[in-house]
Fold these 3 entries.
Entry 1:
Amino acid sequence: MMVLISYDVATGDKDGQRRLRCIAKECQNHAQRVQNSVFEANLDYGTFLKMKSRLLAIMDKEKDSLRFYYLGNNWKHRVEHIGAKPGMDMEGPLIF
Amino acid sequence: MMVLISYDVATGDKDGQRRLRCIAKECQNHAQRVQNSVFEANLDYGTFLKMKSRLLAIMDKEKDSLRFYYLGNNWKHRVEHIGAKPGMDMEGPLIF
């Protein structure tokens, strides 16, 4: 199954910065980064549930958010990418 | 039709910061912000195409990226949100 995962992490303090690193690392272990905070995970259901459980354990539900989009089987027809591909320095500081 | 829009904008210079503001504003005009750089647009096809055209005119295809996920009619079953809702101060500086 293909799942799109996007996250916002409140990085105003050191604990938030730690959560951001941990969530990004967990996603990188199981999914492909397509943008800074957007990953695509093509996993069997059991593996996805384990990953999701770990993400929920890391996040602070009062401050952070996670979104999962279950793209189904025909997901390739649902996605359009325009512009630059994700760079290598995704963990560096970016100011939005 | 429901379309998920996510973007990365290279904000290392003033022009990038301008593009980010313009893209965010264009998205806010037609879509609901669900995370910092993630919007959901429930639009008729013609309106979506006009919006997409404006976004493409703003972005720098060498530096920025836009992704569109066409979620189809049963999109409500495809989305799961966990944690904090988007705050009001989405245009303020956030350090990732």
Note: Strands of chain B lie at 2-8, 32-35, 38-42, 65-70, 79-83.
Entry 2:
Amino acid sequence: MATATVDVAAPDRDRPSERPGLRDTLLTVPRGVAQVEFQPNYWTGLLFVIALFVGGWQFGVFGLLGTVVATVTAYLLGVPWNRVSIGLEGFNGTLVGVALVLYLDVRWMTAALVIGAAVAAAVVGSALNTALTPYNLPGLTAPFCIVTLIMVIGAPSYDRVWAEHANTAAPSATDPGTAMSWHDFWHGAFNGIGQVFFQDTWYVGLIFLAGLAVSSRLVAATALVSSVIGLLVGWWLGVPAADLGAGLYGYNSVLTGIALTGTFLALSRAGVIYAVIGAATAAALTAGISNLFTVVGGHTLTWPFVLVAWVFLAAVPNFSRLRRAG
Amino acid sequence: MATATVDVAAPDRDRPSERPGLRDTLLTVPRGVAQVEFQPNYWTGLLFVIALFVGGWQFGVFGLLGTVVATVTAYLLGVPWNRVSIGLEGFNGTLVGVALVLYLDVRWMTAALVIGAAVAAAVVGSALNTALTPYNLPGLTAPFCIVTLIMVIGAPSYDRVWAEHANTAAPSATDPGTAMSWHDFWHGAFNGIGQVFFQDTWYVGLIFLAGLAVSSRLVAATALVSSVIGLLVGWWLGVPAADLGAGLYGYNSVLTGIALTGTFLALSRAGVIYAVIGAATAAALTAGISNLFTVVGGHTLTWPFVLVAWVFLAAVPNFSRLRRAG
Amino acid sequence: MATATVDVAAPDRDRPSERPGLRDTLLTVPRGVAQVEFQPNYWTGLLFVIALFVGGWQFGVFGLLGTVVATVTAYLLGVPWNRVSIGLEGFNGTLVGVALVLYLDVRWMTAALVIGAAVAAAVVGSALNTALTPYNLPGLTAPFCIVTLIMVIGAPSYDRVWAEHANTAAPSATDPGTAMSWHDFWHGAFNGIGQVFFQDTWYVGLIFLAGLAVSSRLVAATALVSSVIGLLVGWWLGVPAADLGAGLYGYNSVLTGIALTGTFLALSRAGVIYAVIGAATAAALTAGISNLFTVVGGHTLTWPFVLVAWVFLAAVPNFSRLRRAG
């Protein structure tokens, strides 16, 4: 007899669902946006939304659309309210919305696809939850990565999807050369924070940084330091300066750094060294993932972060010098 | 604390093997063919075999060869008879046989490869059983997908395998255009059922549908509706009409629809909506998977179904509105 | 009975770390090299190191560098000494060092990358340990395969990494034709053993074989027979003779054969047949994996072995005729 116990949600099933109030319900949206970077703080989410609108109205609108659809889907399917209310069911929808409008342009068809993709992201998120719970790992932005990757790979085959797709070549395509200027460096440091949401304007990155600082000054400092770590790793390996300036080697380091500094890994001296190695690894991994997906028309997204964070967190139980947080 | 127990087969080992009778033994073959669509009914399997022979003698012969080899392999290795006898060890062999004769043509070498691939599919199936049991997920047609995909990717490097391979370009390669005719529509609806076994003649699809109806009228109705759902999703996205007419956007929806309607998911109003979303997702995923594998010379096979069904079933424990069947 | 409990490291954490002596510490290095082929015997490791230096000084130096860095990393992070001391944390570092100096040439940058890759391999190894423990599966050379694959895929994008990369085309690129000579055959048999460490000189393979014989004559015999099995499968499928002679169809069979003959699978008549099927499967899989990775600039490495061994071992609990070793 095949006996196995992964009884992931039994307690939630039988617990009477609490009746959420209007204010709490509305706040799931900014909390969802904030959870992209693991902050359950609605002020952080509000600043993130402002940053998206400063980056372009379409990023704000489609990001909110994705957040709402993913959250509502999870709620309707019966995900426990204590998980929905802190925004854990929304953030992959946010990223799906922002990414699809970037890659497929502002069109009604894109809005329809964002709705479909956000529903899919909610289901993928719950499936990952089942798969990862035995290992005590978080799903991170993997649902967004999975759904968006497969959609952009398939998109060129769909006549009504791909008619007027945006140009998304890396900056180095038109501006090669590996000599990094001071301008590249400080722009890259802020853009590394903005690129978590696909934004490449330095002051948009600054608003995101402010959003993080509202939640925790440690997190904000970690984000900035991690962005610089990623940038320096890329520079050392010989990445084109234009890509460094656009923050393309920073954003995965930012997310990895935050994840491994107090969020999912307990703070300690060894833990900080481990987080630095993780942030550097996420940057070093970027070109490999990018080349892998470019062949099939995919995009890097936050895959390097997801893979590095999963590996670095899954390894912790074997390392007596490190402990998981929470 | 993350505790999980995988105690996969201990009781089976020590249970004395029941002595199967001749009739029961022979019936494992049609039952195996029927299990491609989750039906443990040998009359269904018999109609499926007839459909294969109507589609072409080689599909019938190689499909039966694969079924027998996979079943015998599992039996010889010691898989419990209660699992072998209901055909659960045969159906991946059926599909391996049909697919390889389609992609590698009728030759003695292909027959040898079907034997090897069916053995491999039996082992992969048991490995998946071990991996998926903790999550209460079925292996579905994944063993077939894994073995066949890697074989067709490798085939061009083998001088004795690839000498006279068949042409398997999509119908749209010679017949582009997205304007769907009535002829495309109704052919596509039946071909979506036939394409589960790689058949693209409408009346072959009809025989498969009859086979399903013998087992359960609900399953047959679900198959037809799901095929139409997949076709309409493809049409809405702008898929070439010739591919829709060939059923290429239907067969993954057919399998997903059946899997999520009473087979592995309990029937309920929410469940049916969930199954419709799943069937639509399987169709929408098709181009992404297809583009991904075409780059390396692979084929779509039933990968979209396998991936969507796993994700949609793995998510269920987190959704209080849905329950697993059985 | 296959029972595994995921309670991943609690006991190790609280156990006081034993103080390793100098001799034991130094011997972790040759033990690490020997563990590439599952032997915890330092004499075997010493002969392997000699074989690497005979193959080229750079393979010896970079292989030792990788072994030391991976072992030290695991020790510093707090992996229990009883695991470190038998070399289980070193062997992926060995392979990383040998592979990177082959693909990226002898440069200081390559040495720096080997250090980074060996650290990453140690972390990936522990993560795999967590993921595979519930299934009672070993990590094998997967950490090496994962880290090296992603690095060689990314390398061309890094200006300072890829400047003078080595030519690593298959021998058949300049020497096509499938007619195998006696010279190809016996060279291939020994090279199949040497290619586990990327060596293609027959007497280097012979030294590796001697190293195995020091640990166990059964293992050495298994290696040689498996190498011939792989070679014959490749020849039967129509592989170019030059690739067969270079051992490219042997090394995955060698590792698979050893893994399934007494190492992770208990010796028995059914077990030996199973191991032969496994060794043949690893060879048959080689072209598929190779074609898959070549598209993105990757290399086959020992992926066929890792995948076949995992599948064949994971399947065992469902097969009453087979039992896991240990």
Note: Chain B has two domains: 1-168, 171-326.
Entry 3:
Amino acid sequence: MSQLGLLPRRAWASLLSQLLRPPCASCTGTVRCRSQDQESLQVAEPVLTSQLKPHQEKPNFIIKTPKGTRDLSPQQVLVREKILDLVVSCFKRHGAKGLDTPAFELKEILTEKYGEDSGLIYDLKDQGGELLSLRYDLTVPFARYLAMHKVKKMKRYQVGKVWRRESPAIVQGRYREFCQCDFDIAGQFDPMIPDAECLKIICEILNGLQLGDFHIKVSDRRIMDGMFAVCGVPESKFRAIGSSIDKLDKMSWKEVRHEMVAKKGLAPEVADRIGEYVQCHGGVSLVEQMFQDPRLTQSKQALEGLGDLKLLFEYLTSFGIAEKVSFDLSLARGLDYYTGVIYEAVLLQTPAQARDEPLNVGSVAAGGRYDGLVGMFDPKGHKVPCVGLSIGVERIFYIVEQRMKTSGEKVRTTETQVFVATPQKNFLLERMKLITELWDAGIKAEMLCKNNPKLLTQLHYCENMGIPLVVIIGEQELKEGIIKLRSVASREEVAIKRENLVVEIQKRLSES
Amino acid sequence: MSQLGLLPRRAWASLLSQLLRPPCASCTGTVRCRSQDQESLQVAEPVLTSQLKPHQEKPNFIIKTPKGTRDLSPQQVLVREKILDLVVSCFKRHGAKGLDTPAFELKEILTEKYGEDSGLIYDLKDQGGELLSLRYDLTVPFARYLAMHKVKKMKRYQVGKVWRRESPAIVQGRYREFCQCDFDIAGQFDPMIPDAECLKIICEILNGLQLGDFHIKVSDRRIMDGMFAVCGVPESKFRAIGSSIDKLDKMSWKEVRHEMVAKKGLAPEVADRIGEYVQCHGGVSLVEQMFQDPRLTQSKQALEGLGDLKLLFEYLTSFGIAEKVSFDLSLARGLDYYTGVIYEAVLLQTPAQARDEPLNVGSVAAGGRYDGLVGMFDPKGHKVPCVGLSIGVERIFYIVEQRMKTSGEKVRTTETQVFVATPQKNFLLERMKLITELWDAGIKAEMLCKNNPKLLTQLHYCENMGIPLVVIIGEQELKEGIIKLRSVASREEVAIKRENLVVEIQKRLSES
């Protein structure tokens, strides 16, 4: 069904197994140290290394990446590429177009969009000119793009880094710099059809990634707000109480109730009324049940939300994913801009898995409807309804890392197909001519950057790097117009005509 | 030879031709405006749109991207993807591994690495904690990575955005946020072998991109510094005079001489001596000529550089690219960290091209050797010699945009293969079931997000979007267990059994 889906499970697992290895060097061969040569210069002229000021040659500070960020090693880059390929190919399967926006936006663009989290935005220093902030997500820039370019309809995906000054809990796969993969549908369509497609996409991606069973919680901002209203929450407290509710996946109801009453000043009886609702979750039958709820049905907004959820479940049944989705009144989602349906996907663990390698990574995909955001950027307030989703790829990387910790299979981080070797001294130029033929034919090829490497060193390099084929050229071969082609695995060598080299290699590579 | 090389020229030109079109909407179909629905709510409860504060609904500032930055439309993203694919596949063909580093670094990491350009670094606001700056290139972070992880040898590539607060000259394809594609070889190897491979890579990429003829200027920091020394430039003025020399591709020698004498206080006779050298360019014969130069050969450093250049030209001949490269004493390169060979590739225009669409985009690829940079990050000053290159992909995008301005061929920005249509009312659920079969089989499919779209609207959508196949389902087809499959181009329709649908579509797609 998907690119990764086509890989045998074992190959996929094997590919991922390298994740936790430390970054390692890739090239071998060393003879002359250029820097030593430079240092030993007999200086009859000024020491001409002004570009390397002596006092700068040793740093007087700790060399590290900024707090909450990290380098990705070649192994990690490889795994990330495979995961992103799968995600993007799903977005494209659903007809999405790619978009790219700058890493930073005018500070005003991001202001008052993220509720309690606004303090986590990275600002740039005022160096004269505009006040700028690093983007906090890909949704607000997308809405800004739609308004700025007057785009009324668009199915788009975007993959990119975003930045949040959170207290880093790296152990849970959370970073201050992380990658987001977003898919959104902007435009006025018939109700819940794009919303259902977003849930279908989440299912396709999580199935394709083979992360095990998962579950999607669905609710609606209008139902939550309606519930707050009929329970007696003052409107000014809606977002604050919503934030407390949002913690129910990490805290017990008792703790959340305490926070609402003691810290946020909610009347205890109001909290208890809310408690009756937020502990409910189920399928479409819970939607039906809520339609009968004498209190909730006093809210016209809640009724609207319930009506849409009913329709949504009908569509999810046609998409074959209804059993993956439940209506969950405890789902709140922190961001200010949601206006309708909201959802969040979490991975499920079997009891055995939870015992062996307990996962606590929060949601791996989430999103919702935000019909008002684009209008906030339009000079005339024209609205463009939107619904979308974001895949938590960093958390998925983390889960894969955890899962693969025990596996030790070797995965290649280079794609080299052929190595050019010689048993002869002073054969560098011949190796260069030969490898040029290969490169120019599109064949992935390497040789050692040494004048006179030993044959054994060259063959060991191939074994270590997993390069399948070796081309060997020496004086004798040159004279006879042939080349030796060696299979690293079987150690078999055959002589072939020099002019057939590229064709023969391409034949072998296509067979393997 | 390369992915794009395999594309027929026409397809490649066609692909690029869309670059200059404005972003356009992608989805059709509209019935109910959800936002209007919301506005018309009969409010028996508080207006529950607190997440959209009324005073925020219309922005009181101009909606734009920050100065010197831009959004990339789907067409531009598509072209960028193709260009980056070609570049990265060349890097991989040469055995490089991928690496990723954070968008920002500790401010100290970037300090005193970029000479006169250091003022162009974007700093982040001090929000408590570390002082951070956005990366200015990918080279310094790579050197920091090598030192921090104690990597002594590595062939790596990295693609990513970098940021520079330059006065934007967008007309020339220069932005404050732009993408870099870097390839570097770190480690101690025999002289000039990795350096020659870098030049080979530049040639492969520029050939693969079919941008027309090009030329690579080569020099060496040691030759330049030696030349300055023997001409009588005080050592304290080396970098400043180097910066003036660097402008010789945009200014005449007379203007550069004036700058050096009047602004930088160089003695006129010293300037004239420099003038004799920097106006020289040629092939390996110029290297030989300089070996006979009585003044230049007084510098041991210059002799070292000339010796390496001679070796380099020998290797370039074996790689078949010597005729693309010239020794050019006017090449200076602005960055502080270079210590040896430096190079810069420029596109050449035929006289006719220069008249029709004069290009002024500076270099499209550049790089050099920097043997001291990693040592600046190592606590003990241990050096790791490095050489690398950067492809100026933004400039390449710009050139492609200019070249394609006149072409008007249509290029698809989505990859949708099949459209699911119905002539019937109330057939949404059946369309959903059918499209689910396609998606789950990995087929790229779309349908309109409307309850009852007209058949003509659906077929027009396919024609507009370039979708080749339509699956049509109606009451009659459902009853008979068949499906109609329509070719959009030929308008031919055939009836096929429902259960053969996926196989039949896959067969057709593999044939086309």
Note: Chain A is about 40% helix and 15% strand.
